[in-house]
Specification:
Distance between the termini: 30 Å
Structural class: alpha+beta
Number of strands: 17
Keywords: Hydrolase, Protease
EC number: 3.4.24.85
Protein name: Membrane-bound transcription factor site-2 protease protein
Organism: Dioscorea alata
Radius of gyration: 31 Å
Amino acid sequence: MARRRVGRTMRSQSILPLRTGHRLPNSLSCWFCEFKIYAFNDRLFSFGWRHARFLKVWFAIGVAFSFLALIGSIMILLWELAGNFHLGREISVHDHLSVSWLFGTTSLVPGLSLSVMDTVIIVFSTLFSVAVHELGHAIAAASTGLQIEYIAVFLAIIFPGALVAFNYDLLQSLPRFSMLRIYCAGIWLNAVCCAVCGLLMLCLPLFLSPLYMHNEGPMVLEVPPVSPLSKYLTRGDVILSVDGANISNSYEWMKKMQEVDSRKPNDPYSVQNSHSQAVNHGKGYCVPNSLLEGSMTLLADDQFSCPDELAAFTSLSCYNSSSLIENSNSGSENNGMETKHCLIAMDVVKLRKCGDGWLMAGKNNCACSEKESCMKPVLIPSMSWVEVSYSSPYTPQCSKPNERGQLQSSESGLMSCGGTFVFLGDILSMARSLQLSSYRPRLPFMIFSAYIPVLFEKILACIFHVSATLGFLNSLPVFFLDGESILETGLCYITWLNTKCRRRVLQFCLVGGTLLSTIVFLWTFYCIIVIHN
């Protein structure tokens, strides 16, 4: 939060951080707009003075916390600076996690697209967190008997903020520890707000349990028309598994997809045949040899495409499987060719799995019988093969949700309440194209209320991140933030430093902290943009 000086009037005032100024009416300029609020002065003073004994102890705890936060924030910045500018290290996703996690940018930056509802939530969370911060300053001042002059909200260019103004002479007449209680109150209340939001997020499944199930498969809330999964999934579908590994919630969905993406082939020359564009993916299916004999197709080495609705498969070494295909491959390799088979993918995915590329445990290269061969899909570099199973428990023919993983079957033998599909392409873009919820309505007619738990989660998470950001920024030794006033007052306890030395130490810390913060934040956002582009 930024602070500023005010102009001239009859009384001198203090605006956190400490600045000597005077009172002005509401101000408006081309780059700055400020609105002063006086309506809450008496009410806040009455509340703070009435509970002064408890509040003094409460905000004294905040002083200790704020000094720990001051030291911790400096250590975080130094750690980030040392890590981000380490010579010889490439930019990776880990370069920005510790700082960007506070801002929530790891989830907001990709695509830089926000819905109207997300924008409203962010604005509300920002206003709420700022109000909590300034409320802390005002109540702490009231508990010491100091009347606030006004509360102001402002917009500097495009950056919103707020401030609390006090009578400067009265503020300076307070004991130093009372001053620290006032300066540290905003950081302390932001930390308490984070703790409350975290506790509510942990208890949210319990509060909503009478109406919603939790962690029983992520439910699809929305599938945009441009999503590659719009042909497979609709609103109300529940994702059951990815590559055979069960999925409980939306966080596991992204985690599994990131794991699949990390295994994608990137080097077209990584296989034994350096001229082949196919790579050993490690995901196989136990295909009967009789099916392979009827569909065997010998493709040229520089081709691995099959006719429409067919996918190319090649053998994956499995010591327990038949040697029929392996012998065929060895013969073709001598001629610079590789044996591939064009098979119907939707039939193949129903077969038993083999290979070590699947996410579920227990799969190995020797899972096929002697009458089967382990066949893997042929992939081009930078593309992934992922198998997704889902159910449709809220469709008319499936009016009652089934137990997780158990799909109703029609008389034809097909799964009428779900199915399995294979996606081939950019896994992370596909995964982010869905809007999922970890909550599922217990009753089919409640499908319209599926957005309510997600809305609560987003509001709590956003308030948590914004409050953490405000607390972190104001604990830094930076000009015009609370850290400046905290550091200035704290240095007064070092009695062996004279006034001139204290002033020099304060300026050194503020200049260094401001430069350090600017460098780390700019580098953090640069890393985020580079990684996600």
